[in-house]
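Morning!

As promised:
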Amino acid sequence: MTASRTPDAFTDPREARGAYRDGLRTPTAGHCPGWTQANLISLPQPIAEDFHRFATRNPQACPVLGVTEPGEVSLPIFDGDLRRDLPAYRVYEHGELVGERTDVVDLWRTDLVTFLIGCSFTFEAALLETGVPVRHIEDGGNVPMYTTSVACRPAGRMAGPLVVSMRPIPAGLVERAVRVTARYPRVHGAPVHVGQPGLIGIDDLARPDFGDPVRIEPGEVPVFWACGVTPQAAVMRSKPPLAIGHAPGHMAITDARDTDYLVGG
Amino acid sequence: MTASRTPDAFTDPREARGAYRDGLRTPTAGHCPGWTQANLISLPQPIAEDFHRFATRNPQACPVLGVTEPGEVSLPIFDGDLRRDLPAYRVYEHGELVGERTDVVDLWRTDLVTFLIGCSFTFEAALLETGVPVRHIEDGGNVPMYTTSVACRPAGRMAGPLVVSMRPIPAGLVERAVRVTARYPRVHGAPVHVGQPGLIGIDDLARPDFGDPVRIEPGEVPVFWACGVTPQAAVMRSKPPLAIGHAPGHMAITDARDTDYLVGG
């Protein structure tokens, strides 16, 4: 990265990861358009196996795009160093957040299994391309996320509620939003619910559990997708001795293209 | 099941499983049309975790439709008893086939994790429905399968080559065959290769490694899909103390519908 280059100019995953490795701490929204961004979770064995079964049992919320061998620091879809090539990490001990860092090299253990989990950034690009507006992007905020009354299928020590993200969609475009996102089953896929938040235990759309509330205009319908916060909620609840995640919005930029996850396009 | 009922009349998974449980030993092709049939593999921990990572790393060959907790004998997509509701099982010890049985109740262990893996029966129905002929069904044989020179991504003790199935498709229908099967990513999805068997290490189409050879008519192109024998090949090569699989063609009939795995339909 040259000094004159702004982060917004990143188009190549290797270059972006190199800048993060050199200490650039920035949210990754808008970086490397067309390249898939992913959630990261590293867990020690054997709880990593519980998490893997949890993810397989709840694939819409926890789509595993890649999993390492214990101790490995790269993957075919991430030809870098998972310990330091994200802009920021969060470290949890026994379910408590104990720190945020720009690398986790000194915390690494040979029994850590790392999962890269699909992120809705991928289908949001597809929504925009097909003419479906995405309110929180228009407004420059984070997507609103809600804890639902829907329980995920547990696995071993891993259990927790389904967390959803919400996007208000003009009623006439809901069909298109369903159809477009359904083509991306490995990045949360089609909505899990349309229209009646009370039916999934959401009392007040103005008060999301994570992220920022968004305007809902007349004629718009709230549409809910399974959310990548679901695995983190389960991981935190299981209180593993150590867990490492990405800092919210500071994603793993992979070497996979968004179109790699497009089905039936 | 009444005495006058032929197995071909099965339309309900629960009824079919009950008949298998009562000792009916029959291949399941054609049973319960529209309901998803799956491969079964049960492995003891911790090798089950190696297999799970192997499957996640090779999702086209090893799509996990369901995974149990250790010792569990049912799943949401299989509301029966995995130890006896398939028509026949194969038992392996240290990688060697030691027997074939109609139930494995007495072999069951609390550390066995069972995986149900997607099967190409699902997309074959979709091919036929859309007018793409399936030769081995026309001819009443088993699909030809070949061990390729393509290595799967290993995980722990699990490693092995990609195994593919082959269907000869009229040249003008190859595009349709690709498109239709691509919509079923969790049952092997789109072909892994079209047209040049030598490029994936297949020397002689007339001599498949598993199944039966099929006619290739003038104007037809050999099309290759990742195959559910891949996980079994890796499991056998890893020589676990115990492994239980379904007997070839004697599949698990699930409570999932083929359309549950259709994406972008």
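Chain A has two domains: 7-119+242-257, 121-230.

Hope this helps with the figure draft.
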